[in-house]
Specification:
The complex is a heterodimer of chains A (about 270) and B (about 375). With about 270 residues, chain A is an all-alpha fold. Chain A contains 13 helices and no strands. Chain A has one domain: MetI-like (MetI-like fold, Orthogonal Bundle). Chain B has 2 domains: about 240 residues, Rossmann fold, CATH 3.40.50; about 130 residues, no CATH class. Chain B is elongated, with a radius of gyration of 25 Å. Chain B starts with a strand and ends with a helix.
């Protein structure tokens, strides 16, 4: 009996807190019909925002996968002074407000910053331009690959890598044929988490973007601009699209995680 | 190939304690050598130093007369089998075995068909036919360990190092794979070094047993040499069931602290001493004391008794069993004769070269069988 009550309470909570809001977003998007919604996406600024988000996300995930693998490998394989501090620092972007993350870059590359003026003079502006957005997104998504990979590498241990070395494998061959395949599901899982976060990042990007429609606006920023401009249908359509993309990523990740539980017995 | 270790020392990474302390060792070509010792003795560390997996601070490692400790683990061409198999979980058995060949640089890499043939050959040798397409997690522990061995042999190593290869297996599989490994060594004649904490395993497999303790080599020799002439009490303690009896030497007589043990004459200065003795070397003397020997078990031709008296409890004594299986179940009023044991003072033998005679059945015991 009490089990049913508990279940009902959970269902109610999940419905109100998690299912209803996106549902309302979809309803709002379709309030003027499907045609109007699709039409709003065809707007050049909207298309530009989608394109920028995709490009930034792909670049971010690629770069952070490389760095994340390096960081995770180094942190799990070596014991050196300051290692624990580094582990904490890797997680810092998770706890620091994204706005602060954005401000850091503004401080370094802004016109009042250290190198900003010089870069701008040479024709490579970083702030209020896509490179700044990339840097801000890199900062907030840095921990994901590292933190999902580290426990897996620690769990797999060094023996398989040592076996590979003794069989004549080079560092690259060990990494490519043994270490990463051995942790591939954790790696993909971390990459997908980073993807979801990169697509939806607002705070950090907002500080460095400059909100130039058609140039430096990502999807989340464009949604805000549209909403503030009372273009309700366009704003909610874009929001629906963004939510859909994120949901697909999360779905793929949970499928992979289920496989991780089932078919990756430790040897 | 012979392996030669010259004054190897390795300190723990945290500094301070020596894990391997000035070890020199010569392993003959084609021999099967076992490194035995309690955990923490430094045997695995020594194996990892030979393989190049762990660094050492002093000394040299040579294989076949050539120094190898200047080479990385990758260039030494040593076969290594880990305690927990360390198979590549995401590869099939065949890919695991062929790994060492498949990753070679193009100019020295055998063709795909040649690799496949070699893998088949090894699967056959390991008695694992038709297992090539399976994944490691689908195999039993014994099968996994054989795959690990096949993988180590695939590249034609100069030396085979085995780090507690049976540690994770259940006793029955352990015994099987042990016998099988013995045959394999006979067939291939590959110089093999085995690390184990199981002295029986070492004695059964190896022609040379090296006993280690606290980072040092205590003694090495054939299993029989170690049994006949243990270098110190530790070796005797470690290489078989040993009973220690403490006592006091006064005027040329060792008087045990416990009652019902016959004093032993000895040419030794007065003071505390100990006798170390194997259960099979203890004699039971009926009608000479107040101890009670209770039949414990019979294994083959050996019967063992547990002897209890006012001052000790359950001391194990072994003797040849009566062929007719009418060994007495209880022997009362007996005493114990430990004159076949070895004297120890300050943790060292006090009478060097003190030989042992085999178990003797005294006339008094013999009559009990009838």
């Amino acid at each position: 009996m009490s089990r049913i009550v508990y279940a009902l309470v959970i269902y109610l909570l999940v419905t109100v807190m998690i299912v209803l809001p996106p549902l309302l977003v979809v309803v709002m998007a379709l309030s003027h019909g499907l045609g109007a919604a699709i039409e709003s996406l065809a707007d050049p600024d909207a298309l530009s925002a989608i394109r920028l988000t995709v490009i930034i996300t792909v670049l971010t995930v690629c770069i952070n996968t490389v760095f994340g693998v390096m960081a995770a490998w180094t942190l799990t394989h070596f014991r050196f002074p300051g290692r624990n501090l580094l582990v904490v620092l890797v997680e810092l972007p998770l706890s620091v407000s994204p706005v602060v993350g954005g401000l850091i870059w503004l401080l370094v590359f802004g016109t009042q910053g250290w190198w900003g003026a010089a870069l701008e003079r040479w024709g490579y502006p970083v702030m209020f331009a896509p490179p700044g957005i990339l840097l801000a997104t890199l900062f907030v998504t840095f921990p994901y690959v590292t933190r999902t990979l580290m426990p897996m590498l620690a769990h797999n241990g060094r023996a398989a890598e040592e076996a590979a070395v003794l069989l004549g494998a080079s560092l690259w061959q060990v990494l490519w044929h043994v270490t990463l395949p051995g942790a591939r599901l954790a790696l993909v899982s971390g990459m997908l988490l980073a993807t979801a976060r990169a697509m939806g990042e607002f705070g950090a990007v907002s500080v460095v973007s400059g909100h130039i429609p058609g140039l430096t606006e990502t999807m989340p920023l464009h949604i805000e601009t549209l909403y503030n401009g009372y273009q309700t249908v366009a704003a909610f359509t874009m929001a629906t699209l963004l939510a859909l993309m994120a949901m697909i990523v999360v779905l793929v990740r949970s499928l992979i995680e289920r496989r991780l539980d089932r078919t990756e017995p430790s040897i | 190939m012979s392996v030669y270790l010259d004054h190897i020392t390795r300190h723990s990474p945290q500094g301070g304690r020596a894990i391997v302390d000035d070890v020199s060792l010569s392993v003959k070509d084609g021999s099967f050598t076992a490194l035995v010792g309690p955990s923490g003795a430094g045997k695995t560390s020594l194996l990892r130093i030979i393989a190049g997996l762990d660094p050492h601070q002093r000394g040299q490692v040579s294989i076949d007369g050539r120094r190898v400790d200047t080479l990385g683990a990758r260039e030494r061409n040593i076969g290594f089998v880990f305690q927990h198999y360390a198979l590549f979980a995401h590869m099939t058995v065949a890919a695991n075995i062929g790994f060492g060949l498949a990753i070679r640089p193009r100019h020295s890499r055998p063709g795909r068909a040649a690799i496949r043939r070699r893998v088949e050959e090894l699967l056959e040798l390991m008695q694992l036919p038709a297992m090539g397409a399976r994944y490691p997690h689908e195999l039993s522990g014994g099968q996994r360990q054989r795959v690990a061995l096949a993988r180590a042999l695939a590249t034609g190593p100069r030396v085979l190092l085995l780090d507690e290869p049976f540690g994770a297996l259940d006793p029955l599989v352990r015994r099987q794979i042990r016998g099988w490994l013995h045959n394999l060594h006979e067939r291939l004649g590959l110089t093999t070094i085995l690390v184990t904490h199981d002295r029986q395993e070492a004695a059964e497999l190896a022609d040379t047993v090296v006993i280690m303790n606290r980072g040092r080599v205590v003694q090495s020799g054939t299993p029989q040499e170690l049994e006949d002439n243990p270098a110190d009490p530790f070796v005797m303690d470690f290489s078989g069931e040993t009973i220690r009896i403490a006592g006091l030497v006064t005027n040329g007589r060792f008087v045990p602290d416990m009652s019902d043990i016959i004093p032993v004459p000895v040419a030794l200065s007065n003071g505390r001493a100990e006798i170390l003795i194997r259960p099979a070397d203890i004699r039971l003397l009926p009608h000479q004391g107040n101890a009670i020997a209770q039949f414990y078990q019979r294994r083959g031709l050996v019967a063992s008794y547990k002897v209890t008296s006012a001052s000790f409890d359950g001391m194990l004594v072994e003797m040849p069993a009566d062929p007719g299986d009418v060994s007495a179940s209880i022997i009362t009023h007996c005493a114990i004769d430990i004159s076949a044991g070895r004297f120890v003072r300050d943790n060292a033998w006090v009478i060097p070269g003190y030989g042992l005679v085999g178990p003797v059945i005294s006339d008094e015991v013999q009559f009990l069988y009838s």
